Amino acid sequence: MSCAIKDDIPYPIREAVITAFEVEGQCSESDNGYSEAGINKTTRTVDVYVGDTVDLSALTIKRFEVSNEATIIPEEGVCIYPNQFPKTSFWRTNGDTSSKVNFSNGAVRFTLQTYQDYEWTIRVRQVIMREVHIEGQVGEAVVDPINQNVIVYVASTKNLSAIKVHKFSLGGPHGTVTPDPTQSDTYDFSRVQTFQVTTAASSKAQTWQVFVYKTDAAETIEVSAFARSVSATISGSIPMGTQPDVEYHAEGTSEWTPANMSQMSVNGTRFTADITGLRPGITYTYRVTSGTAVSEEQTFTTVAEQHLLNGGFDEWSSIIASSGKELWQPWAEGDISYWSTGNAGATTVGNSNSTYKDEDGRRFANLQSKYIVIKFAAGNIFTGDYIETNGTNGVLSFGRPFTAYPTKMRFDYKYKTSTITKDGGDWKEAWGDYISRSMYENMKGKPDSCSIYIALGDWDPVSYTSRGVTYTCPYLIRTRPSALHLFDMNDSHLIAFAQLTKGEDVSTWTTETLTLDYRVRDRQPKYIIVVASSSKYGDYFTGGEESLLQIDNIELLYE
Q: How much is the pTM?
């Protein structure tokens, strides 16, 4: 007897996408701080902006993460060190030059290879902030980098042959202009003037032409407001050489209050002014005077307060997990789950280590670090959901919807530290032969630390499906070492942040107040993340087996 098996089974479809990308010197489109790369999975393109000092011919890729363990293949001839360029996802530290690529042509193609090939294009654009500010200027200068010319309008009363130049950075803040008109008391713009301009990234000079025209347009003020909960930022344009005065009053009152001059900045014809000490949910009227120009009166409404649910951790319930262990949950039976813990993972092999306790006339969260049969587990509680246990690791959704702007977070806590005995390197994955190589093995023998932090952000949520249920995750957390994705304190979507780390005993109830650091002031949060852990590096299965964090009365303040 004989038989033949036809080998016609097709390869599975495993689409490869770029999930994270970062280069050296990365910035926003306006060069106003760092901004994440724009990743478009439909067009398979990535758009990145870099500062004016970056050398595009040898640009270091710091982070390049892809899905489905795809192989990364750059187009031929672009890698500075082609034999060293990583073939899989990577996140490089400063000083590593193996991932330098020539982006001087603006775009580079990469092929992501699984069972199929997926071609992606990475586009890098250099941001050169060119500014011209001259005496009597009306409005912003019109800068055309393609044709290399500038048009500036000044008041009709100005003498074009003797114009004072305040700023003339056609080559960006680190470039050069020859001749430099700012070095003269005045400069003759009665006719078109020509300048040789170089940028910090290129010594090759470009020829620029500058045209200055008179205008009969009246000097005007354009203003707008961005309101938060207890503060607002007024910004706009004013006549060149004038100083703005900002005034405001609350709805129902008529007395104008001047804004604090120390919280105001002026750059050419642009200004910003921060107004503090406002009340949440109130409408305010404001106006701006600068020189002889006065803006129209406009209004803004501050954002109403929002607060955490069950911040006192008085509500708890329990169920019996599939392992037969009692799984404690930080919400009342039948109520919604605002907070969650890692208990669903701990009870697969042991007991809940994040529970409550009644003591000192109060009920509070009792977060105990433990070594549970095969792995170290920190006691923890967080806003969000525990989605599933993958092997012996957790998949979590951090964050709850939130749109307000608190200034502080206050809580009561006690902490007992212990010596770090576990560094995450002594356990084996349940599904294979992958052995964890601890990132924190040098911490053994040192005191453990607790960590409590709050984060506000405008993250784009992702979907995650488990057992037929789809979760909308503001911030997806994975603790599996081979697919690790933890909270990133340098994420560009992070709007405000504050953290307490304590590596010593706090034996009596202590009230701590954290002041939120707002990294950006013109974006509204979508979500709030609050996390408390008895071992700071519990995500890496590192800590002391007897560390204990007790926490109560977490509340948000608007001051």
A: 0.74
